[in-house]
Model the fold of this input.
Amino acid sequence: MKKVNTTAKLTTIAKMVARENPALFKEMCNKSEPMLLPRQAKLIPEIHAELKKQNPDIDKTDESIMLAACIYQAFAPATMIGGSDLERLPNGIRPVMCNVMQWKDAPTANYYSRISSVYFKGNSFKERIMNVLNVFERFSSKTNQQQLF
Done:
Protein backbone atom coordinates (compact mmCIF):
# COMPACT_ATOMS: atom_id res chain seq x y z
CA MET A 1 0.00 0.00 0.00
CA LYS A 2 1.35 3.40 -1.00
CA LYS A 3 1.81 5.89 1.84
CA VAL A 4 0.05 9.22 1.20
CA ASN A 5 1.79 12.46 2.08
CA THR A 6 -0.98 14.09 4.12
CA THR A 7 0.84 17.41 4.46
CA ALA A 8 1.14 17.77 0.69
CA LYS A 9 -2.53 16.83 0.33
CA LEU A 10 -3.57 19.46 2.89
CA THR A 11 -1.40 22.10 1.23
CA THR A 12 -3.17 21.41 -2.06
CA ILE A 13 -6.59 21.60 -0.38
CA ALA A 14 -5.64 24.84 1.38
CA LYS A 15 -4.52 26.37 -1.93
CA MET A 16 -7.81 25.34 -3.54
CA VAL A 17 -9.88 26.84 -0.71
CA ALA A 18 -7.79 30.03 -0.80
CA ARG A 19 -8.38 30.38 -4.54
CA GLU A 20 -12.08 29.43 -4.54
CA ASN A 21 -13.22 31.11 -1.32
CA PRO A 22 -10.71 33.63 0.10
CA ALA A 23 -13.05 34.68 2.91
CA LEU A 24 -13.46 31.10 4.11
CA PHE A 25 -9.71 30.55 3.88
CA LYS A 26 -9.05 33.67 5.98
CA GLU A 27 -11.61 32.54 8.57
CA MET A 28 -10.02 29.07 8.74
CA CYS A 29 -6.56 30.60 9.23
CA ASN A 30 -7.82 32.87 12.01
CA LYS A 31 -9.51 29.95 13.77
CA SER A 32 -6.42 27.80 13.59
CA GLU A 33 -3.95 30.41 14.84
CA PRO A 34 -3.02 29.51 18.44
CA MET A 35 -4.19 31.91 21.10
CA LEU A 36 -1.32 31.01 23.44
CA LEU A 37 2.33 30.24 22.80
CA PRO A 38 4.29 27.35 24.34
CA ARG A 39 6.11 29.74 26.68
CA GLN A 40 2.71 30.55 28.19
CA ALA A 41 2.23 26.99 29.48
CA LYS A 42 2.40 28.45 32.98
CA LEU A 43 -1.19 29.65 32.37
CA ILE A 44 -2.51 26.06 32.28
CA PRO A 45 -3.08 25.84 36.07
CA GLU A 46 -4.96 29.15 35.84
CA ILE A 47 -7.04 27.85 32.92
CA HIS A 48 -7.85 24.78 35.00
CA ALA A 49 -8.85 26.97 37.97
CA GLU A 50 -11.12 29.07 35.73
CA LEU A 51 -12.67 25.90 34.29
CA LYS A 52 -13.45 24.69 37.82
CA LYS A 53 -14.75 28.14 38.81
CA GLN A 54 -17.17 28.26 35.87
CA ASN A 55 -18.20 24.60 36.29
CA PRO A 56 -18.08 23.91 40.05
CA ASP A 57 -20.09 20.68 39.96
CA ILE A 58 -18.15 19.03 37.14
CA ASP A 59 -17.07 15.41 37.56
CA LYS A 60 -13.49 14.24 36.95
CA THR A 61 -14.18 12.78 33.49
CA ASP A 62 -15.93 15.89 32.18
CA GLU A 63 -13.25 18.03 33.79
CA SER A 64 -10.58 16.06 31.91
CA ILE A 65 -12.43 16.36 28.59
CA MET A 66 -13.05 20.07 29.07
CA LEU A 67 -9.49 20.84 30.15
CA ALA A 68 -8.14 18.99 27.11
CA ALA A 69 -10.48 21.00 24.89
CA CYS A 70 -9.38 24.27 26.51
CA ILE A 71 -5.68 23.49 26.18
CA TYR A 72 -5.85 22.16 22.64
CA GLN A 73 -8.06 25.07 21.54
CA ALA A 74 -5.62 27.56 23.10
CA PHE A 75 -2.35 25.98 21.93
CA ALA A 76 -3.27 23.88 18.84
CA PRO A 77 -6.75 24.92 17.65
CA ALA A 78 -6.68 23.07 14.32
CA THR A 79 -7.10 19.84 16.28
CA MET A 80 -10.45 21.11 17.57
CA ILE A 81 -11.62 22.32 14.18
CA GLY A 82 -10.97 19.11 12.35
CA GLY A 83 -10.35 16.64 15.12
CA SER A 84 -7.21 15.61 13.30
CA ASP A 85 -3.86 14.39 14.48
CA LEU A 86 -2.18 16.66 11.96
CA GLU A 87 -1.48 19.36 14.49
CA ARG A 88 0.11 18.50 17.80
CA LEU A 89 0.44 20.41 20.99
CA PRO A 90 3.77 22.20 21.25
CA ASN A 91 6.42 20.37 23.24
CA GLY A 92 6.09 20.78 26.98
CA ILE A 93 2.34 21.39 27.14
CA ARG A 94 1.17 17.82 27.79
CA PRO A 95 3.41 17.34 30.85
CA VAL A 96 1.93 20.50 32.39
CA MET A 97 -1.59 19.20 31.70
CA CYS A 98 -0.67 15.86 33.26
CA ASN A 99 0.68 17.60 36.34
CA VAL A 100 -2.45 19.74 36.74
CA MET A 101 -4.82 16.79 36.27
CA GLN A 102 -2.58 14.27 38.08
CA TRP A 103 -2.55 12.00 35.02
CA LYS A 104 0.12 9.30 34.87
CA ASP A 105 1.47 10.05 31.39
CA ALA A 106 1.14 12.19 28.27
CA PRO A 107 -0.88 9.61 26.24
CA THR A 108 -3.74 10.33 28.66
CA ALA A 109 -3.80 13.88 27.28
CA ASN A 110 -4.01 12.41 23.76
CA TYR A 111 -6.93 10.22 24.84
CA TYR A 112 -8.93 13.15 26.22
CA SER A 113 -8.04 15.39 23.27
CA ARG A 114 -9.63 12.94 20.83
CA ILE A 115 -12.81 12.85 22.89
CA SER A 116 -12.86 16.62 23.33
CA SER A 117 -12.51 17.24 19.58
CA VAL A 118 -15.75 15.31 19.06
CA TYR A 119 -17.54 17.19 21.86
CA PHE A 120 -16.18 20.49 20.48
CA LYS A 121 -18.42 20.11 17.45
CA GLY A 122 -21.43 20.70 19.73
CA ASN A 123 -22.34 24.34 20.19
CA SER A 124 -23.01 24.26 23.94
CA PHE A 125 -19.73 22.45 24.70
CA LYS A 126 -17.80 24.80 22.41
CA GLU A 127 -19.44 27.79 24.09
CA ARG A 128 -18.43 26.56 27.56
CA ILE A 129 -14.82 26.12 26.40
CA MET A 130 -14.72 29.54 24.78
CA ASN A 131 -16.18 31.13 27.94
CA VAL A 132 -13.21 29.76 29.88
CA LEU A 133 -10.69 30.86 27.27
CA ASN A 134 -12.19 34.34 26.91
CA VAL A 135 -10.84 35.08 30.39
CA PHE A 136 -7.32 34.53 28.97
CA GLU A 137 -7.77 36.48 25.76
CA ARG A 138 -5.67 39.30 27.18
CA PHE A 139 -2.66 36.95 26.91
CA SER A 140 -3.41 36.13 23.28
CA SER A 141 -0.54 35.91 20.83
CA LYS A 142 -2.85 36.19 17.82
CA THR A 143 -1.65 38.82 15.41
CA ASN A 144 -4.79 40.90 15.90
CA GLN A 145 -4.28 40.97 19.67
CA GLN A 146 -1.88 43.05 21.70
CA GLN A 147 0.85 40.91 23.20
CA LEU A 148 1.17 41.50 26.93
CA PHE A 149 4.22 39.39 27.76
Q: What stands out?
A: DSSP finds eight helices and no strands in the chain. Residues 36 and 108 are 21 Å apart (CA to CA).
